[in-house]
Amino acid sequence: MNSVFPTHHDNPLLYAGFWKRLVAYMVDGIIRMVASIVILLIAAYLDNPAGFLDPEVHGDLGLAGAMGTLVVLLMYLLYHPLFEASRHQATPGKMLLGIIVTDAAGQRLSFAHALGRHLASAITWMTSFLLYFGYWMAGITARKQALHDLIANCLVINRNAEIQLPKDVHYVSGGFPIWAAVLVGLVLLVPVTGILAAIAIPAYMHYLARATVATTINETVQQRALIVDHFERLGFIPASQESFGQDWLESISEGKARVALIDRTLVITFTERAPMHLQGQTIGMSLHGELGDQLNWHCGLSEGQGRRHSRHSAADMTSLEARMLPSQCR
Q1: Is 54 exposed, middle or buried (0-12, 13-18, 19+ CB in 10 A)?
Q2: Is 266 helix (H, G, I), strand (E, B) or coil?
């Protein structure tokens, strides 16, 4: 079958050239970059509203950060297909430059066809070791097609170009070739799987570690009650847990942590059964207040209010980094 735009077409202004396409791509790149920054800032804020711009607090992805990253990846995946399969047949950058994407018959792409073309651009990108020759092809091929255009059987044309077709020729689009779909799928399967795993696994481990920390702190309620009771009866906190004898539970959180009273400060130490990020790390908890008044426990890096009854502050006995601590302990 003949193409609707044969190589000998007498309208040289029909196909969009390399430089026009490059400028459109740069405009789209700026749009995606700004959108990505906004999405990731929102995700960082949701992870930690109080300190989302603090790199010490947000060294790793939290759950919202992981979701934000996935949203950005989906945006990069769907940005071109959604716009190029729309009635505009162009991304904002292409609209600005007055060019559109069509199939080989000059017709609007289906979403699947547009997605296939976008995924095929990964193969074009892989020509980087050849100075990105796959992109430069848009400047030297007869119909100004880059490598992914050839793979996907697509054209990029000027929107207002006058198209005159011979009436005695039947034209078909051909769609996205099956062989091209298989090739693109095989090329993208491994890196896409790797990217998703690289995002999901650390995010899950981070979430699991933070959940373990919060649960462990809550499980010190028995030890804290013993200390408060001793303080209210005798007016001081013992130097160590030995004063409580068998009433003191040293192992908590299913063996993931040990609890000790060190210089009148309650100290949680995570064992080898805890998530890897926590093993060997400590969290201090100190008692503040006056007899006959409200007594308060302060943990981690939080600033205690009122008189402190332990020799060390909670922060002095805390080695766990701030991003792993619950908000009340920062």
Answers
A1: middle
A2: strand
Query: CB-side exposure of 157: number of CA atoms within 13 Å?
Result: 24
Q: Residue 216 in contact with residue 256, Cβ under 8 Å?
A: yes
Q: Which residues contact 192 (CB under 8 A, 6 or more apart)?
A: none
Sorting pLDDT into bands at 50, 70 and 90, what band is 293? low
* Residues 165 and 26 reside in one and the same domain: yes
Q: How far is CA 54 from CA 60, 199, 291, in A?
A: 12, 21, 38
For residue 12, the model assigns a pLDDT of 57
Asked if pLDDT for residue 232 goes beyond 70, the answer is yes
- 168 and 233 housed in the same domain: no
The rounded percent of the chain whose pLDDT value lies above 90 is 25
Alpha carbon distance 77, 284 (integer Å): 46
Residues whose CB is less than 8 angstroms from the CB of residue 277 and which lie 6 or more positions away in sequence, other chains included = 205, 206, 209, 324
Match 């920062």 to its residue by tokens. Answer: 330
Residue 207, in any domain of the structure? no
225 and 325 housed in the same domain: yes
The predicted model scores a pTM of 0.53
Structural domain harbouring 134:
18-176
CA distance 312 to 21: 65
Q: Can you give the CATH number for the domain in which 321 is found?
A: 3.30.700.10
